[in-house]
Design brief:
This protein is of the alpha+beta class. It is 38% helix and 22% strand. The protein has two domains: 158 residues, no CATH class; 62 residues.
């Protein structure tokens, strides 16, 4: 099969030459135009046809949900910056923004101008690939390792020349995805660029810790609201029993409130009173 032979894209059927296609892990071909509808950081040699199709089907909605999340961000530890911050990493310009309330961030490179979507990454999926078990579900022990607040998954690898000067840097972090085992951003650098690589890695790690802090705070707050709802429900049921009201209705209202608390549809007032959003 030569350089100038053509193969049909498994998605759109267009026949393209070797320079305008990639081979999927399942041996089909994907043309560059269809590939731009997947995650820019995905490795096609890791990606099955089904995985590529899932990316095409979901990336736009993920990006839209991420954009909408900035309006909903609230609470202690939350940091939501709608505007991108920019780092010049050698010859590569990288734009980054994060919502720690959602636990997600976006990375955009200038070379991604033709991509259909800016991909969204999740802090909960920044997992060393060797920790990923067979299948898609983590057991409790491994999830505990992953949720280690002290872990700094985003890191910088430096390559030095014969004189010991850094000539190339790679920013990378592990990711638990069938098509993305890790994200890598690499560039030749001058001495002044090295600090910028480390600064972006540190920013990602700080935001991940902020997300973990908010998750812990939200869990504590949710537990407090559930205890308050339990007390309110018991009091309402007792009052109904003493006044001839419907105990069943009081309990039903308490159960509905408990479900709304779990789904994040309830907030707690200054004096502890629960309000549906």
């Amino acid at each position: 099969m030569g350089l100038f032979s053509k193969e049909a894209c498994t998605f759109c059927g267009t026949e393209v030459g070797a320079l305008k296609r990639s081979k999927l892990a399942t041996k089909e071909y994907i043309c560059n135009d269809c590939k731009r509808k997947t995650n820019y950081f995905a490795r096609m040699d890791y990606t099955s046809r089904d995985a590529a199709q899932r990316m095409m089907d979901t990336l736009a909605q993920e990006a839209a949900d991420f954009e909408a999340s900035f309006d909903a961000a609230e609470g202690r530890f939350a940091r939501a910056e709608r505007s991108f911050n920019t780092w010049d990493l050698g010859r590569t310009r990288v734009h980054y923004r994060c919502n720690t309330a959602l636990g997600a961030f976006q990375l955009k490179l200038d070379v991604m101008s033709r991509e259909a979507q800016i991909p969204v990454f999740w802090f909960s999926r920044m997992i060393p690939y060797e920790l990923r078990p067979e299948g898609d579900v983590f057991d409790g022990a491994r999830r505990g390792e992953v949720m280690n607040a002290a872990a700094e998954y985003a890191r910088v690898e430096e390559e030095r020349d014969g004189e010991g000067k850094v000539k190339r840097c790679t920013l990378l972090f592990p990711y638990d995805d069938a098509a993305i085992r890790e994200v890598r951003i690499q560039s030749d650098v001058d001495e002044k660029d090295v600090a910028d690589f480390h600064d972006l890695a540190n920013r990602i790690n700080r935001d991940r810790r902020a997300w973990l802090g908010k998750s812990e705070f939200d869990l504590e707050r949710k537990n407090e609201m559930q205890l308050r709802n339990l007390g309110d429900t018991a009091a309402a049921a007792l009052k109904a029993a003493l006044t001839g009201g419907s105990v069943e209705e009081a309990v039903k209202e308490g159960v509905e409130m408990a479900n709304d608390i779990e789904e994040g549809k309830v907030k707690q007032g200054f004096f502890g009173k629960l309000f549906r959003k």
